[in-house]
Amino acid sequence: MVFSTTKFIEQTVPEIKKTIGNELAITALSGGVDSFVATALAARAIGQNLYVVYVDTGLMRKDETEKVKIAAKNAGIKNLIAIDGKTKFLGALKGVTEPEKKRKIIGEMFIRIFEEEAKKHKVAYLIQGTIAPDWIESGGLGRDTIKSHHNVGGLPEKMHLKLCEPLRELYKHEVRALAIELGLPESIAQRQPFPGPGLAVRIVGEITEEKILIVQDACEIVENEIESASKTGKMEKPWQYFAALLPTRTVGVRGDERSYQYTIIVRAVKSLDVMTVSFSHIPHEILERISTRITNEIRSVGRVTYDITNKPPGTVEME
Ligand code: XMP
User: Whose C-alpha lies nearest to ligand 1, atom 4?
Assistant: First the structure.
């Protein structure tokens, strides 16, 4: 069945209005298309009764906070509340290596920060951009938990905010169509997905500040090279493309000396609904450019690999 963006907006705006009533609400803006669309719908529904909150977890892409502030301003969001949560998130994740534990800690930390903010403004509702794959993969109703998405399975059992999730039944391509209909800029509508737990699920094992900087730089190189190759027609633009860091070090040689350094995995996938994906066929010369740039520009990385696993049996993110 064809998805009608106009009908969806016509139905959903009054529904949000009815749910929130005369209460106040917070929207969790992460910078991705889902949360921007949820925020735009909520703003239409309840206007001045909405607080828009962005949390910098310290696990964001390079320069992300600045980019989100600019994107929010361009999208007409004037009263963005930007919270620096780096110390709290990294403190709580110190020494944690188990993927589900990381996800639960992050999910809970987000909620506690939103609750603190809600208390200040006497807010009753949290409006989130949760979409279908988030709750399907988080398990329940006889389904196995593939991974607890931070905004679903990662939520704490006890929370003081009531949830409103207007995009719950939608898939990413439908949310992108809504973004266009709502007049959001192309750069947001077409932005590649970024997981709520951020680089925590792209650093396999323990998270350290050193590793965060490595993945941020590696992700930026992968993004730049793939975007420029796609723009010049050298390859099809993947659904998602990024770098992840393995905890394993391998032996190499730099100049005349032995090195023993980290390994980066480059991941690029194509998909429609992200329930299944296949790895992108990137021309070898582009992979070579990515590998050369990563090992030249990030001196603590000595090896770069390309992930050729589909989903299933892999998932998009490493954890
Ligand atoms: P996986 O790794 O499950 O990812 O194949 C499917 C899509 O979801 C994104 N992802 C998340 N998004 N919260 C999110 O908002 C999460 O906890 C989360 N985990 C994965 C992932 O980037 C991919 O687009």
Answer: 316
Q: Among residues 191, 273, 196, 285, which one has the least CA distance to residue 237?
A: 191
Query: Do 105 and 59 have their domain in common?
Result: yes
**Residue 139 pLDDT > 90:** no
pLDDT of 151 strictly over 90: no
In the predicted model, is pLDDT for residue 155 greater than 90? no
Beta-carbon count within 10 A of 65 CB? 17
Nearest atom within ligand 1 for CA of residue 315:
5
Which of 57, 146, 149 to mutate to test ligand 1, by most ligand atoms within 8 A of the CB atom? 149
pLDDT tens-digit series, residues 176-199: 999 999 999 999 999 999 999 999
| Alpha carbon of 134 to ligand 1 centroid (Å) | 7
Q: What is the CA radius of gyration of the chain?
A: 20
How confident is residue 316, by pLDDT bands cut at 50, 70 and 90? very high
Q: Out of 129, 161, 189, pick the residue that ends a domain.
A: 189
Enclosing domain of residue 296: 202-306
Can you tell me which residue has the tokens 């909520």?
A: 42
pTM of the model: 0.93
Closest CA to 287 of 247, 238, 214, 215: 238
Residue of 317, 318, 319 best suited for mutating to test ligand 1, as the one with most atoms within 8 Å of CB = 317
Q: How far apart are CA 170 and CA 296, in angstroms?
A: 42
Task: Mark whether 158 and 268 lie in a shared domain.
Answer: no
Q: Which pLDDT band, with edges at 50, 70 and 90, does 90 fall under?
A: very high
Instruction: Give yes or no for a contact between 96 and 105, defined as CB atoms under 8 angstroms apart.
Output: yes
